[in-house]
Design brief:
By secondary structure, this protein is mainly alpha-helical. The protein has three helices and no strands. Helix 2 packs antiparallel against helix 3. 9% of the residues are buried. Its EC number is 7.1.1.-. NDH-1 is composed of 14 different subunits. Subunits NuoA, H, J, K, L, M, N constitute the membrane sector of the complex.
């Protein structure tokens, strides 16, 4: 399989995520767009790992560069990104829910900046 297809799909997913972050006003939808961008990065990591492993056939090197080894470095990095995304969702949703309890809205445009807050 050509690696061009997953790269194009990942670029489209990342582009949709960037569009979602720029255009959305709802904080929960912005968090979902960030998750979409992180999933695009996961797809790129795994695809690059497969492409590099297939290109290194017959090349002597370290254990991480051996295409016959069972450990996939792209999959390991993708697992770290998934863990990071889970932590981001937990913290982000906690912040959004607390803000909703205080202000009864989750629109990003209505969030006052630090220098605009007046008590």
């Amino acid at each position: 399989m050509h690696v061009t297809i997953p790269y194009v799909v990942a670029a489209a997913l990342f582009g949709l995520g960037v569009h979602g972050v720029i255009r959305r006003r709802n904080a929960i939808l912005v968090l979902m767009a960030v998750e979409l961008m992180l999933n695009a990065v996961n797809l790129i990591l795994v695809t690059a790992d497969v492409a590099v492993r297939s290109a290194l056939v017959g090349v002597p090197g370290e254990a991480w560069a051996n295409p016959n080894s069972q450990a996939g470095s792209g999959g390991v990095f993708a697992l770290f990104v998934i863990v990071l995304a889970a932590a981001e969702v937990g913290v982000g949703l906690a912040i959004v829910l607390q803000y909703y309890r205080m202000r009864k809205a989750v629109a990003i445009d209505e969030v006052p900046l630090a220098d605009e807050v007046q008590e």
